[in-house]
Amino acid sequence: MMRAILIKGKNILFKIIKWFFILSIASVILFRFVPVFFTPLMAIRFVEQMFDPERDIQFKKDWEPISNISPLLVKAVITSEDQRFNEHFGLDMEAIQKAAQYNEKHQNRKRGASTISQQTAKNVFLFPSRTWLRKGFEVYFTFLIEIFWSKQRIMEVYLNVIELGNGIYGAEAASQYYFNKPASKLSMQQAASLAAILPLPLKWSPVKPNARVVRRTEWIKRYMRYSEGLEEK
Fold it and tell me: Considering only Cβ atoms within 10 Å of each terminal Cβ, which end of the chain, N or C, has fewer?
């Protein structure tokens, strides 16, 4: 009797694992071609808006191909979030090692090392969580998108789903909301200021920046000029 139960349980577990792999790989391949219009984080934020009287209920998101997004914003987010984006295969081991060393010395001020690929995988396929299980799924989906998507596609999806304010998602919606212009027309200052608020988009603003946002914006602009030889526009 017990043997039969164990065999049945093993078969069920095998089927669950098999279908997880099938569906996860199929969804990654699907989103290589299909725009991502909604993510788990967006659903969570919408529910939070409903129960928070201090937050307006709004949802602003417009999908734009990367060809319609300013290259300045691409360079700004790479500068801010993942300077080895074009070199690594999803995980930046050097950044992870540096973050671990920093966190050992600064227990009250943690530093992350998530790449743009990891952030994209987390935003599109997973719910926010700090558990090791969720981190494991994040690594799994990160490798999948690195295998099945191009770097350009990863950046395109990232720039269309990132949270950039209360109910504001993606470069186009943020550009229209904050600057009344399409994402293709962003200046270096505007692109850098959007990249600067990525760590805390619900608390920071590119148009009403606090001192930290101002410093981050200037650092991003300076690095962009030095690394790419750009002139501010």
Answer: N
